[in-house]
Every structure is written in structure tokens, then in C-alpha cells.
Amino acid sequence: MNTYELPLLAKVLDMDADKPIILLNEITSKKLDAPTLSRVRIKNPSNQKVMTAIVNTTETIVKPKQIGLFGSVGKRLNSKTGDKLFITVAEQPKSIDAIKRKLVGETLSDEEIGQIIYDISTNNLSEVEITYFVAGVYNHGFTDDEIVSMVKHMVESGESLGLGHRKILDKHSIGGVAGNRTSPLVVSIVTSLGYIMPKTSSRAITSAAGTADTLEVLMPVEHNIAEIKRIVDETGGALIWGGSVNLAPADDKIIKVEHPLSLDPQGQLVSSVLAKKLAVGATYAVIDIPMGPHVKVKNMDEAKELARKFVEVGAKVGIIVNVLITDGDQPVGRVAGPALESKYVLEILEGKRFEDLADKSCLLAGKLLEMAGHCSKGEGYEIAKKTIENKKALTQFRRIIKAQGGNPDIKSEDIPVGKQRYEFRSEKNGTVAIINNRTVNKIARIAGSPITKGAGIQLYVMNGSRVKKGQILFEIFAENEAKLFDAQNFAKANNPVEIEKMIIEEYTGRDFEITPMKV
Amino acid sequence: MNTYELPLLAKVLDMDADKPIILLNEITSKKLDAPTLSRVRIKNPSNQKVMTAIVNTTETIVKPKQIGLFGSVGKRLNSKTGDKLFITVAEQPKSIDAIKRKLVGETLSDEEIGQIIYDISTNNLSEVEITYFVAGVYNHGFTDDEIVSMVKHMVESGESLGLGHRKILDKHSIGGVAGNRTSPLVVSIVTSLGYIMPKTSSRAITSAAGTADTLEVLMPVEHNIAEIKRIVDETGGALIWGGSVNLAPADDKIIKVEHPLSLDPQGQLVSSVLAKKLAVGATYAVIDIPMGPHVKVKNMDEAKELARKFVEVGAKVGIIVNVLITDGDQPVGRVAGPALESKYVLEILEGKRFEDLADKSCLLAGKLLEMAGHCSKGEGYEIAKKTIENKKALTQFRRIIKAQGGNPDIKSEDIPVGKQRYEFRSEKNGTVAIINNRTVNKIARIAGSPITKGAGIQLYVMNGSRVKKGQILFEIFAENEAKLFDAQNFAKANNPVEIEKMIIEEYTGRDFEITPMKV
After folding, report:
1. What is the rounded CA–CA span in Å between residue B341 and residue B179?
2. Fewer CB near the last or first residue (10 Å), C or N of chain A?
3. Do A14 and B61 touch (CB under 8 A)?
4. How many other β-carbons are positioned within 10 Å of the β-carbon of residue B514?
5. Residues of chain A contacting residue B263, judged by C-beta atoms under 8 Å apart
């Protein structure tokens, strides 16, 4: 509308943020009618580069004739201090009307969702605007068609692995269960049998350690698209921190505004997971939904509806999905914390222990083998277990460690864990009834996990264990006394928690074809 | 929970924002588990000052052992570069649960609303969190009781004028009508008759000029509480920019996150207006609701429900409210832009013109006089008009200008307006059918209003005016050629707009007692 372009002199600032921010003097901000948080278009006339950025204001750092550029903005405009730039107020993003419609509960078209995802990934929408979108989805949900549109457009907005048309397997566990480190085991098992499985994982947000935090103890997990392709070509597998590639940038920005209220509407969760699967080219995916009072999915109705969405939307975007609803009521594995967990995974592959983490991993890997046609239904678990027993999975894990730049000869006993330790003992005789995931995670974090790799917690009992007074229940590991002390005090004031059979129920595409779920 | 206090060395930064921001090195941010936008408690052990601030991160500006303080944070902690400060992660604000409940449509208790307003005004809630609250209110509305709680707690969160128990009058016009500069006239009229009316006004957000922008041409409008009291003691009236006092700080933060989507849910609007009335101690208030397709309130159903809320909630918080629903379909007055509007107001008080702005002001002032018991119902308008005719209102306006530090001898012809002018002429014969408020505002803004005081637009016709081809319809004023050119091009591509009788209907507390409205 207002075509008036204001010329300003660039001042590159030694500052950066996770958004493209520019700094205007308050006088300039008023003159342009561009207050804090509004968007401006910036043009560098010397190279015709143009971008949109968000305004912050200052009275001192830049003068009225200047524009302060945060590091990334300077780079994108290829501009240095003293360059003349032209600034105009950016028009209101096209997707604002669609966001308002979602906020009041209307259903959005594929085109509208495409515009929203485009505006999010090009920084045309602010956090406040993205928040209104999430609020609408949280309040009114997404139809299956809307989720399909979300998946498609989120994949379009980012990079894809482009491995070609092959059978590519993938898995995903809905978060919140301590020690649920199945990914390295599942990847090692299925790739040892010749399948392709490039797995991206996250770092911890509220848990003691994410898979990426844990695997980093054994090998570098940050690799770009070209490196991942090379690793997959060499080994069939890859274990990568998802943040090092740009698979669905819009999704990451949406997740960021969900955190403050711990929102995670089902429709958004399904589109987020499937977009990341589709971006790596997955054709078969198994989804693990831990269910229980202390994890994300609280009851069977919620779990079933989530499973239905995964299977049906998956089919619409070309991924065959099977869902396993599992017991989320106690930690999987006996440890939480990067070094302790990586040690534990190696011990399983070395044949030193099996227990529930290995059991669950064989279930997930077995399901993928059945889906990919490697064997008949019901045979997958035993085939998976055999790759652990005959050390094929261990050999394969070492190949991946080597391809990603780690030491392939590392043994479980080589991994150092925290030297400051505290043994927490039972005050009475009895049977362990429940172990609370949240508390376990919290103790590990207070002890320093995941930043301090050696920090964490080791459990010596599980649900149903008979214990005697004075017996060690768990041990806390830290690398400095103050943190050990804090963790130990917290543990004294708060103590562990329930159990049932591992897989409570199972849903496949077939189930839904035969018996449609009520919504 | 985590009681671990990290000692860091302060580095005061030459930077400020509208929020209390501190800068942590990324390593420190990870160590503390305090990512960008999370909140930390900072303690200055030398003076025991404690505050909550929002984390931004950097790789370069501060080192891992440092904490960068934005200007206002340094001041509040009374801390200088090199001071040792203690940092802990702030606990999740108490009001997060209440915000989630509002988001899904539940009704909040007085205590919950109190906690939300407290957390907003103490910077314990981020913009994203406040946005979720607004989204909930927009989607599900407020009950009258919730609005009462909002008003009470917003007033508690800020300063109050504290003029004691007197008859204090106030008015408010719901925004969006160009040239609707009734406040200086209403204040001059009622205070000339001995009543108290300390009026706070806003600056323009999307209009050509706010009342504060306009009056600033004649006198300083930024005064603190003590100065306002002195001005009111001397004159009975005051015309103040609301932003210079801190009457309901939580409200200002809520309004800020409403802007990007232009949301203004009725419940929030009513609580916002009444909180500001209550904070100045108003006992009688008249609310002007312009209604029409191009302003905030589009139709009679919406206007009536808004009127009902104002009257009933007003009664519950101790303010007697009368509402006038007026014609919002064409500009009130003939001009838009600070200098043009202040000149126009002076011309009315000098007796040089009367027209619709004066007419509307006498209606509003007359209503206040009737409510305050100065005269019987139906007599207020004529009494108000008489104070203009006998120049008592002018004398009173000059007293206020003087008390606020302006030149009391200024005359309308002394006010300079933009020297760059363009006369926009009719291309055919006919009758003016409609004048569009939005377009008028936009032309004035493109010409430079409200920053450039002399910029704006003067209308020479109104709805129903008979015009001939070549006759001047309006004139654009600017202070530089480029802006005049832009405004003139915009005007050529977009042209003016409808009319009916000024007050369409009137609602008083009495009406609602007799005939309860359907909700």
C-alpha cells in the first residue's frame, strides 16, 4: 500500500537470535509505522537480495538513519556496515485470515494450510501469530484432511533425504518414558538384515536425555543431508540428531510455541511425526504410543484415536503405519542419562543383559520386519532377537558408529560415568508398586543430565521387585558435589511409582479397515 | 525445584526492550536448562534485589560466566558491570493452568483471574502465554463476573489517580472513526460547569491521529500522577496521554498481543475501558459506540450486547454507565491529522464553526451533565451548547492548556499545517453517498500523520453533499513531496463512502433494569 521506501545505513551487530531481527531507532520505527515485532521488507540494492525481518527498537544502539542487522540478517542480505539498504513495511501475511478462521473452529483448505506453513517457514509469521494458530488447533482439532495437508506442506517447506524409491523403515516413540532408548537397537537390528533405516532423533526437552544426547557419547550425531546419504550408503542405517537437518522447519517453530503451555494437540503431533518420516522417504513406520497416567497419552480412548489418525493419515500420504500401544507407567531400561544409557545399549548388544529395553526393541524391530515382508506375522520378534544373540546387530551398530566418525571399537566398560555417587536405600521391606518416569527424569536432570554426559540415575529395582530395608533402590551419578547434593535432596523428598504387560493392545491398518473407530 | 543458584558476572548492555531481557551464553543457557524465552530469577546479593527476566541467548556477546543485562534490568537490580549475581530458573507461573482452562472454554474464578493479571503485570508471563489467554477469551468469551474480576485486578495492578470521593466524569469512544475528537470539547464543557474530568487518551494505532497526538500540538500531554493531580486541582480537567501513566499495565500487554490479528474480544474491550475509568476514580461514564460496516462494531446486535455489558459490569464495579450507539459510517468532523484536528477543535470553541463534531460533543457532555444531576433528562445538550456559545468552554480549554504547560493564548489561525498540498476534485456531477473512514485514515497516514503533525486530510463535502464536476472533494496536506505523491496516488486508486441520523439508539442502566436484554 505505502510504497515509500526508506533508505537506511546498515550496521552489522555482534548479536544473533533464532529469528531474523533488525534494530531500528525509535524515531525511525515511528516514522515507518513499524513498531516492535512488526515486519519489514529489506532490500540490498547492490545485489537485489530481499528478505523479511522482525523489528526491535532502540534509543541508543542505532541512529535514526541506521538499521542494525543481527548476524544472520547481515549474512542473508550479504550486507556489511555502511551499506545502503531500502526498508518498507511488509504487508500483512496472507495467512492471517486463515489463522483467524482456525481460531474460531473453521476447517481450513489445503491452500490455506499451505499458505500458513509457507509463511511460518519464511518467517512471515511472528510467534504470537503462530500461537493463535496452535490455540485454534488445540481448541478445535484438525480433520484428517487437514492433517494430510499439514504433512504435505511441512515436507515441502524443508529438505528431504531423497534416497529414492526403496523400502525405507522408520519408527517413532511418543515421548515421556525414561530410558526408552529403542532407536539404536531397532536400527542396528533391521539394517543388519539389509533394510534401510535413516533415523533422526531429538535432544532432551524435559527428559533426562534424548536419543541424540545419548548417542553423542559414542559418535557425532550432527550430519548434513549429503553426509547422511553417505552413511546410509555405507551401512544402511544412520542415527542423527534431527536438529542438524532442516526436514520440516515450520514444524520446529510450531513446537516452540507449544512448549510454554505444554500443548501438543493430537492433530499437530501426528502431522509433525509423519512429516519427518515422509521427509526421510519412509515407506513403513511403526509408532510406539506409551500410555499411562504419567506420560503424554493418559488413557485408551486417547491412545486409540491417536493410533487411528496415524494409520489413516499415514495411508493417505503413502506411509504404511502400524501402531503399538505400550505400557508408559515405568521406565524402560534401568538407567537415565547419556553415558549410562549408551553403556546400557552397548551391554545389550554385547549380550551382557537383555531385560525390557531389549525386549521392547525386538518387538518394534520385529513388527517392521513383518510389515516389510521379511517374515510372516508373529515371526518378527524372534528374528530380531536372534540378531542380538548372534552379534549381527552389534557388528552393524559398530559400522554405523564408524561411518558417523566415532570409535567402532568402544566397549561398554570404556564409557565413563559420573564419579560423584549416592546410593538411595529402602527404608522398609516390601514390594515395589510404582516407578514414576517424571521423577526419575527430574533427578537425572538435577544431577546434570543431559549436559553433563556422566550424570544420571541407575535403578536397581523394577515394579514388583521384592525389596528389603537397607537394599539399594537406585543410585544417582553426578560430576560435582553440589549437583549430587541437590539431586539427592530432591530424591529424598520425592520417590518412585506402577506396572502391567508391555503391549496393552495393537492396531494395524487392517484393524481399522475391518472395524472403523468411533471418533 | 532445582535450587541450584548459578553465580554469574553482570555485563550491562547498551540495549533495551519493552520487556526485561537478559542475555546468556548458549553454554550457560543449556547448563541452567533455561532456553530462549524461558524465565530466570536474578538476585543481586549486595542489595538483595530480586527480579524475573526473560532469557535470550548469544554465542558471542557474553561469555559463559557472564550475564548480559538490558538497560532496564540493570536499573531494577541496581547492578553494574562486574557485579556478581545469582541466577535460578524461575518456576512455571501459577497462572499457566488457568490459561489452559480458559483456552478450552472453562470459566475462571476471581482468584485465577487475579493470578493471571498479577503474572502479566510482573512479567511472569511471556507474549506467547498471554496470546493463549487472549485466544481463549476470543473463542469462548467472558462471563460478566469474569469481566468484573478483570476490571478489579487490572486496576489493582497499576497506579490510581486517587482524587478522593468526588463526582468524577469520564467518557470513552470505541475507536475507528476519523476525526472523532470529542474529548477536548467534552472535558472543556463539563469542567467549565465545575465538574471533575481527568481524561486519558491514546495515541493512534491505525487511525490518522489519536486524541493524544492531536492535543500534543497545543500542549504537553505526558504527565505523571502527581502532575495530573495538580492540573485537576487547578482546572477540574486534564487531557493526558494514557501511556504516560501506568493505570492498568496488564491491559497494555494484553492489547499488544491482540494487534497482530486485530482481535478485540468484547469481554476484553469492556474490562479494558472500565479498568481505566475506575483507575481515575470515575463515578459516571458515557460510552460512545460508533456502529457501521467500516468500524469495530458492525451491527445492532453486537452494539446492544456490548452496551449491556458496559452498563451491567459498570454497575458492579461502582461506575454508572450510559451508552450512546452512534453513526460510525462517516468521519466526525471534516479533518484528520494532528494539526488540522487541533485547529478544528479550536475553531469550534472560538465559535467559528459548529457542525457534527461539536454536535456530537454536546450530546456526550449533555448526557454526562444529566447523569451527574446537573439538569433533567433532555436538558443537557442545550446547556452544553451554551458553554460553547458563551465561550466558557474556550476559557476553560485555555486554562487546561496553561496548566499542562502549553501556550494558552494560541488561536486556531496560529497552528501551522502541511505546506505540500493536493486538491482532489470530483470527476462528475452528483450527490455524495458515502465517506469511508478507513480510506480517510489511510490517506492521512501515508501523507505522514501522526508523526508529521502538519500532515493530514481536509474534507470539503459530507454525505448528501451535492457536488459538481471539478469541485474540490478533499485536500491532502503533507510536509514533503514524496509523501504527498504517495498519498495522492493512493487516493486516486481508492475513494470515499454512507450516512444516517447521529444517535441511532440510546441505552441507560434504567433501560436494562426495565427490559433485560437477551444474551
Report:
1. 7
2. C
3. yes
4. 8
5. 100
Question: Topology of B416-493 in CATH?
Answer: Aldehyde Oxidoreductase; domain 3 (3.90.1170)
Q: Which of B4, B31, B58 sits opposite A15 (nearest CB)?
A: B58
Q: Which residue has the cell 454508572?
A: B320
For A21, the grid coordinates are: 531481527
pTM for this model (two decimals)? 0.82
Q: B98: how many CB neighbours lie within 10 A of its CB?
A: 22
Q: How far apart are CA A376 and CA A379, in angstroms?
A: 6
Dist CA A468 CA B454 (whole Å): 87
Q: B449 to chain A: nearest residue by CA?
A: A31
Q: Which among A16, A110, A144, A264 is annotated as catalytic? A: A264
Q: Tally helices (H) and strands (E) across chain B.
A: 19, 18
Is A96's CB within 8 Å of B261's CB?
yes
Would residue A264 show up in a list of annotated catalytic residues for this protein? Answer: yes
Q: What are phi and psi of A233, to 5 degrees?
A: -60, -40
Rounded Cα–Cα distance for residues B397 and B181 (Å)? 14
Per annotation, catalytic residue among B145, B264, B486, B511: B264
Task: Please state, as a whole number, how many other Cβ atoms lie within 10 Å of the Cβ of residue B90.
Answer: 17
Q: For residue range B331-357, list pLDDT tens digits in order.
A: 788 899 999 999 999 999 999 999 889
CATH number of B169-411+507-512: 3.40.1030.10
Reported as half-sphere exposure (CB side, CA atoms, 13 A), residue B181 has a value of 33
**Regarding beta strands B237-241 and B197-201, do their DSSP bridges make them parallel or antiparallel, or are they unpaired?**
parallel
CA atoms of B457 and B100, how far apart (whole Å): 46
End-to-end C-alpha distance for chain B, whole angstroms: 46
What is the per-residue pLDDT across A276-286, written as a single tens digit (0 to 9) for each? 999 999 999 99
* Residue B106 grid cell: 472453562
H or E element that contains A76: helix A71-77
For B33, B67, B278, the CA distances from B7, given in Å and listed in that order, are: 15, 9, 44
Copy the grid coordinates of residue A392: 549381527
At a CB cut-off of 8 Å and minimum separation 6, what does B255 contact? Answer: B272
Between strands B39-44 and B84-89, the pairing is antiparallel
Beta bridge partners of A53: A40
- Chain centroid to CA A437: how far? 18
The CATH class of the A6-89 domain is mainly beta
CA angle A422, A427, A433 (to 5 degrees): 95
Per-residue pLDDT tens digits for A148-194: 999 999 999 988 888 876 789 999 998 767 778 999 999 999 999 99
Q: In this structure, what DSSP letter does residue A5 have?
A: P
Q: Taking CB atoms and an 8 Å limit, are A128 and B128 in contact across chains?
A: yes
Residue A157, C-alpha cell as written in the block:
517447506
Measured CA distances, B287 to A145, B255, B301, B320, B467 (Å): 46, 19, 17, 11, 35
DSSP letter at B374?
Answer: S
Those residues with Cβ within 8 angstroms of residue B264's Cβ, 6 or more apart along the chain or in another chain: B258, B296
Question: In a 3-state reduction of DSSP, which class is residue A265?
Answer: coil
Average pLDDT, consecutive stretches of 10 residues, N- to C-terminus, chain A (519 residues): 72 79 87 79 90 85 91 89 90 89 95 96 88 95 96 92 85 81 96 96 81 95 95 96 87 86 88 94 95 86 94 96 87 89 96 92 96 95 97 98 97 95 87 80 89 92 81 92 90 62 53 37
Domain boundaries along the sequence of chain A? 6-89, 96-141, 169-294+338-411
